[in-house]
């Protein structure tokens, strides 16, 4: 067996004895000894068996290069995405969480009390509670949008306040309009419906304007992941389509408000709310067709 060790030393003579090379050499030594024993058992002379075993090894440098090459990353794609999310994770501030919980409890309490008082025929107290609930919803919406999250940059304070105001107007408008139910038959029922509908429409229009003029606040790493996965909806691929949807939505709700007023004065206020139901149905059908329908191929840029 002395020839096997000598031939192996010669094969590694010009190779720096790094830890990887030393480990490979010892592995080959064990295999060569076993291979020489097999050849000798088949009748091959010891010297010839050693030469044949070493010749079967091939290029030692290539074997060392293969061992030094980094192992391919066999992790699934979602594992890399999860690591990226963990790296960029932003935890909400404790004060923000406490404020949201308190505001949420106030809104829930206002809604429950509103329902109880309205069932007893009260009018003014539910109207005040509608304002309280609207302010709570607006504060939650505006404060949430002003916070940095894992995927989104915070909105500027002014724009976040505008979003909160829109939420407050819509919530207050709905609550104020429903005050007409316990006041039905009184002279003030029409006024509650008109005021509530006006607040609702103003809030919806403000929501539409904010949505149309909203810039992309998503962080770069989320846009990279979305680009790799491909946009799932038409609005993400075509901002102009999203802007048109916002304009159409504003037109629908303003028209619904005007129709409800006309129906209320001409036919009866008990039927005026049907205009908002029709407006909602039209908006949802339009959303389904524009956002999730077959995308329109974008026009190629004209060459001058």
Automatic annotation (TrEMBL):
Record's keyword annotation contains Transmembrane = yes
Q: Which residues cross the membrane?
A: 96-117, 123-141, 162-184, 190-212, 245-267, 273-292
Question: Is Transmembrane included in the keywords of this UniProt record?
Answer: yes
Domain of life assignment: Bacteria
Q: Which UniProt keywords apply?
A: Membrane, Transmembrane, Transmembrane helix
Q: What is this protein called?
A: Uncharacterized protein
User: Whose protein is this, by species?
Assistant: Xylanimonas cellulosilytica (strain DSM 15894 / JCM 12276 / CECT 5975 / KCTC 9989 / LMG 20990 / NBRC 107835 / XIL07)
């Amino acid at each position: 067996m002395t020839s096997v060790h000598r031939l192996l030393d010669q094969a590694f003579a010009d190779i720096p004895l790094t830890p990887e090379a030393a480990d490979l050499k010892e592995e080959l030594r064990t295999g060569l000894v076993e291979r020489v024993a097999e050849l000798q058992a088949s009748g091959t002379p010891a010297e010839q068996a050693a030469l044949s075993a070493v010749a079967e090894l091939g290029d030692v440098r290539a074997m060392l290069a293969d061992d030094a090459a980094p192992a391919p990353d066999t992790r699934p794609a979602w594992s890399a995405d999860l690591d990226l999310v963990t790296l960029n994770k932003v935890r909400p501030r404790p004060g923000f969480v406490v404020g949201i919980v308190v505001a949420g409890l106030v809104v829930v309490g206002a809604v429950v009390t509103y329902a109880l008082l309205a069932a007893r025929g009260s009018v003014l107290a539910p109207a005040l509670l509608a304002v309280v609930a609207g302010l709570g919803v607006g504060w939650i919406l505006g404060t949430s949008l002003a916070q940095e999250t894992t995927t989104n940059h915070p909105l500027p304070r002014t724009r976040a306040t505008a979003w909160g105001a829109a939420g407050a107007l819509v919530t207050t408008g709905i609550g104020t309009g429903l005050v007409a139910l316990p006041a039905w038959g009184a002279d003030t029922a029409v006024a509650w419906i008109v005021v509530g509908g006006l607040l609702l429409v103003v809030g919806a229009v403000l929501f539409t304007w904010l949505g149309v003029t909203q810039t992309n606040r998503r962080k770069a790493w989320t846009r990279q992941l979305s680009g790799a996965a491909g946009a799932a909806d038409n609005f993400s691929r075509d901002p102009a389509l999203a802007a048109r949807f916002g304009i159409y939505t504003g037109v629908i709700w303003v028209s619904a408000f005007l129709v409800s007023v006309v129906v209320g004065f001409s036919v009866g206020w008990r039927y005026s709310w049907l205009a908002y139901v029709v407006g909602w149905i039209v908006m949802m059908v339009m959303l389904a067709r524009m956002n999730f329908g077959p995308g329109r191929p974008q026009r190629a840029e004209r060459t001058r």
